[in-house]
């Protein structure tokens, strides 16, 4: 009986460590590997808190890719945090419009409350689009890219703004938070 308990315990430890290592590996891979950005059907800018450096810089990165001719449309994502606020998507749109020479085509996806809904709702708005470019902060790219794959996008590129707006301890915190979030998303990846 003790031998069976040891085997079960060892198996649980090995599986748990494997999942944690895979999780960390995915987050770091997508954060640090930059594929060539090919032309795509759309750019999906993942939301962040309004008035934050993250939301502002994600919007500007999406605009840069749009102005470089990488896609004909930008999907700005993210719902409202509180009723009196504008949505994250509206904030992204505002930043893009303020900084662009000509008004780009922007689709607002402003009903989501998390990354899963950002991608799911964007998929619905983009119809039969096959290719997208995911824009978010480096630590957040793995979740966005894997969800885009789950929702049927075939050709996925990704990009993030330079991360100078984070101090090192803050950036490490966001990486840690993302490791935990990725673990929580395992059931969603497997649906």
Which CATH class is shown?
Answer: Alpha Beta
Can you say what the CATH homologous superfamily is? HUPs
- As for the number of domains, it is 1
CATH domain fold name: Rossmann fold
**What structural category do the secondary elements indicate?**
alpha/beta
Portion of residues within helices: 40-55%
Account of the 3D structure:
With 191 residues, this protein is of the alpha/beta class. The chain has one domain: HUPs (Rossmann fold, 3-Layer(aba) Sandwich). It is 53% helix and 12% strand. The chain contains seven helices and five strands, in the order αβαβαβαβαβαα. The protein has helices at residues 2-32, 53-67, 88-99, 115-126, 141-150, 168-184, 186-190, and strands at residues 42-45, 74-77, 106-109, 131-135, 155-159. A five-stranded parallel beta sheet has the order 3-2-1-4-5, with helices on both faces. Strand 4, helix 5 and strand 5 form a beta-alpha-beta unit. The mean pLDDT is 93.
């Amino acid at each position: 009986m003790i031998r069976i308990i040891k085997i079960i315990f060892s198996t649980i430890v090995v599986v748990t460590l494997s999942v944690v290592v895979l999780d960390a590996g995915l987050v770091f891979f997508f954060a640090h590997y930059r594929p060539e950005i090919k032309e795509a059907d759309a750019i999906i800018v993942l939301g962040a808190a309004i008035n934050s450096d993250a939301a502002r810089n994600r919007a500007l990165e999406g605009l840069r890719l749009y102005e470089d001719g990488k896609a004909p449309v930008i999907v700005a994502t993210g719902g409202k945090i509180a009723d009196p606020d504008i949505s994250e998507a509206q904030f992204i749109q505002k930043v893009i419009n303020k900084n662009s020479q000509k008004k780009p085509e922007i689709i607002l996806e402003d009903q989501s409350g998390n990354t899963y809904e950002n991608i799911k709702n964007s998929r619905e708005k983009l119809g039969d689009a096959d290719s997208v470019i995911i824009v978010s902060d480096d630590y957040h790219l793995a979740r966005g890219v894997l969800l885009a794959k789950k929702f049927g996008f075939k050709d996925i590129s990704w990009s993030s703004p330079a991360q100078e707006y984070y101090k090192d301890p803050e950036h490490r915190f966001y990486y840690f938070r993302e490791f935990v979030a990725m673990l929580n998303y395992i059931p969603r990846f497997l649906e």
